[in-house]
Amino acid sequence: MPCIQPAQPHPGPPAQHDGRAMPRPAALAAAAALVLAGALAPWASPLMAESFTTRDGIELVRVEPGTFVMGSGRGHGNARPPHKVTITRTFWIGKTEVTQAQYEAVTGRNPSAIVGPDDPVECVSWHEASRFAQLVADREGRSGFRLPTEAEWEYAARAGELGDRPGDQSPRTLGEHAWYKANSKGRHRPVAKKLPNAWGIHDTLGNVWEWVADIYGADYYRKSPPEDPKGPERGSSRLFRGGAWPWEDRSATFVRRGNYSFTHYAGKCPAAPAPEDQVDSMWDTDLGFRLAFSEKGVQQIMKSISGSR
Fold first, then answer.
1. Burial class (CB in 10 A: 0-12, 13-18, 19+), 296
2. pLDDT (tens digit per residue) in 287-304
3. Which among 69, 135, 202, 303 counts the fewest CB atoms within 10 Å?
4. pTM of the predicted model, to two decimals?
């Protein structure tokens, strides 16, 4: 059974907590009634669980809907222009990158070149990361596990931050949150050893780049929808975010967008993925992923009790 951390009720109107609206007691009571009636599993309710943990030890934290400015007016051109994006649905995202021990527990193999059970898994293609999410769904007995969209990733990584990096933008502050070239000593590191962001999420910057669900489009920000963007429908490569251990600090930002135009094989990886897993993707010792989760039924229940908020 997944582990549950119950949300704490707050009196009065929804209060702002780390950038997220907290539910009223009436909404909590409505969700609790649904749980007791058997209409909703306790861990599936975004009003009842701040986080949940899968049977293989993958913890996901709840992220409430909200609006933020995505991209930047500085730095790499594919992060321009900055534009307002609204995430309209509650979702959950991995507290950490998926570790090698977690990946092996689900798939029976560890493809990583730099081995460490609590280090992030690497040398996985986008297709392998997506298949892992489906395997987790099968093991948990519910759909909804997936890679985060690019917009969800940046929204969760920022956790209310307005700049391109945490806090005062200084190398010292970055080093408190991220493993990158200046402090990694030539390898990725165990997850959750650096400070989390304001929403309790670790390693969104540095350690390993992270696959997101979207296809890459260099000019997508100029035409993306204002609500729940999911990337262009067509393209020649998949997208990853966040920077990584062998990269300079300029890559460890909330806005840097990584991609490879065609298949790419990193010679340091022990083996290449199967041919069908190589299309529009690549794999390397500095590239992993984290899970996301959302469920249509949860969104319907939230809508049904929205009048209680």
1. exposed
2. 999 999 997 645 544 454
3. 303
4. 0.82
Structure tokens at 1: 């059974």
Q: What is the DSSP letter of 56?
A: T
For residue 193, give every residue at least 6 positions away whose Cβ sits within 8 Å of its Cβ, in sequence order, or none.
none
261 contacts: CB under 8 Å, gap ≥ 6? 236, 237
What number of helices (H) and strands (E) belong to the chain? Answer: 6, 16
Taking each helix axis from N to C end, the angle separating 126-140 and 100-107, rounded to the nearest 10 degrees, works out to 70
Note whether 62 and 95 are within 8 A (CB): no
Residue 130 Cα distances to 54, 112, 133, 142, 254, angstroms: 17, 17, 5, 15, 22
H or E segment to which residue 20 belongs: strand 20-21
